[in-house]
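hiii, so i know i said id send this last week but things got crazy w the move. better late than never?? heres the sequnce for the chain we talked about at the cafe, plus the structure i predicted for it. fair warning i was half asleep when i ran it
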Amino acid sequence: EGLIEFYDSFKEMFEFFCKNTTIHGTIRLVCSDSNRMKTAFWTLLLLASFGMLYWQFALMFSQYWAYPVVLTMAMHSEPKMFPAITICNLDPYRFELVSEHLVQLDRMAEESITFLYGINTSASLFHMNDRNIHVKGLSGIGNLSRSSFKLSQNFSLLRMSDLRSGKKHSSVGFRLCNATGGNCFYKTYSSGMDAILEWYRFHYMNIMSQLPVIINISDHEEQIEDMVYSCQYDGEPCRPSDYVHFHHPVFGSCYTFNSQGTDSFWTATKPGIPYGLSLILRAEQKDHIPLLSTVAGVKVMIHNHNQTPFLEHEGFDIRPGIATTIGIQQ
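okay and structure toks below
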């Protein structure tokens, strides 16, 4: 036989194909030509088989062009130590030993505000002596009010003017000079409130530094129960040994939870709000000093263990009367 054969009709070529192909069932189309019922049955069966074949081809190609990726992921939860949390009630104390100097500072602030803005304020706005700490049994201290300490008049608030872009701008600042009134340093602020707060804080810290070191402020301050109504960690109530108390001259009573980071009670095993630290705080400010801090509420700082909390630079404020959620990630 030749390599290429030409058939007289399509029927002859179809019969040759059905008799020599390896496709199952095609020979039945030729052998059963005398029975049309069998021929029709095998024809339908072959067409259905080809339909299934091409349907499988379509599925495979669609899956191939989708570029599927099989990813095996294993989640491993490693316990971590919960960080240290410091909270302050923003309610600094006025001590009777320096009350005279604090009253004098309030009067100076009143005079400065009147001089700068022409607003008449009452000294009672700045000074509230509803509750003072009485320190008894300290011999040799004497009365600080009669000591040689005096508020520096060389550190005063001024209204300063400077030229910017050909226009005259007025700003508020303060001047700090040496004991003789010379070698002065000037600091200006675009906001008068910022200048007054910084000026008041400087004098306040100068006054508070006159308190004797031997005074244990913690013995005279309120207990943690007066500030923290409820404390829970991971659903368990906090213990008395879980916090450390200290006093901040500006932010008042401060408590640091998990300061050492060695107690297994503060191990964090699961993420989420129910497994963290939950506090209900009382933010009552009986001795609030408006010119020392314009914030009402609670000061919070999240820091590492055995770290001194610098609340002025890294702490943030939480306003009272609302629920606040803080999320952290190491």
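btw Residues 127-143 have pLDDT under 50 and may be disordered. thought thatd interest u
miss u guys!!
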